[in-house]
Amino acid sequence: MSLIKLLRKKTTNALFTTPSHGGKFFIYHKFRQFYKSDISETDTHNPTEALFKAEEAASKIYGTNYTYFLTNGSSSGIIASVLACVKSGDKVLLHEDAHPSHLNAVKLAGAVPVFYKLPLNSDWGVYDKNSVENLEPYLKNNEIKAVIITSPTYEGFVSDIKSIKELCEKYGAYLITDEAHGALYPFSERLPQSAVKISDFTIQSLHKTAGGLNPTALLHSNCNINPSEALKMINTTSPSYPLLATIEANINFLNSQKGKRKIEELIDNILALRKSCSNIVFGGDDLTKILIKSGSLDGNELSERLFEFGIEDERSNESSVLLLTGIGTDLKKIERLKKVLKKCNKL
Fold this sequence. Notes:
seven-stranded mixed β-sheet; Aspartate Aminotransferase, domain 2; 13 strands; alpha/beta; Aspartate Aminotransferase, domain 1; about 350 residues
């Protein structure tokens, strides 16, 4: 039985269990249906078996050794990956300005952080992609047990994961890829190659681009290490089955013909946007990260102008503006952005 079917089952039992709302006492009525699905492990015969089968099915979809559902965001996947493959005193190579979870994971493992730098892309005012040339000096001069990289970057620059994995193998290091912003990659050939079948550990956020609820995510393992024991150390023993069920539904949708069509429609709409806005320069390797700059305005000025016309971007700097899209970004929203960008071009 899947998690989705499990939550559809109705019980006539008198529940003297957790959660204490019992599926009938709704403090916040807007979440009435959520309360009804918020079961305890004791409410059914074996909900953990349903979760196991859902994760096993997901692993087959992604082509990984193991895939685990996360309800504490990609941060928990990063931490579990580090805990799974390093021990106290081992050295872990990570970016000096990485997401806080990277360093937190190293600290929790009792490992030693070794920091690498990333080149700055002066055209866009952001960090550039990682490379073998950038990482090898650190691996050559240190006994590194694991390497953590972020690909895609926040702004959509994608590293050559295959070459970096070969480099890590050369020096006997595990590769952990923070692919939080690349959850759509496995489902379209027009998007960059995903790390899920290449890296030892790959972490994806479903809520960032793939339409999932905060903070749903996935941890994939493609090496001989099963990170389940590490996850047990940091996860709650009272998981949210409604959130877990949304992960199962999310993956099934992405892997369906309907979901894949939705992704292709998003890509088509963005390509049409890029073609029609000839005075706007587009950058990055990932089409779904709309990284732009204008010849007449600097990045912060362009951001302010967009906001005046009702468009709110994700972030900006002196050179560029970043607008994030995902599977929930429909044509109406893209068309609205197109009209505003054309107005900005005329000013």
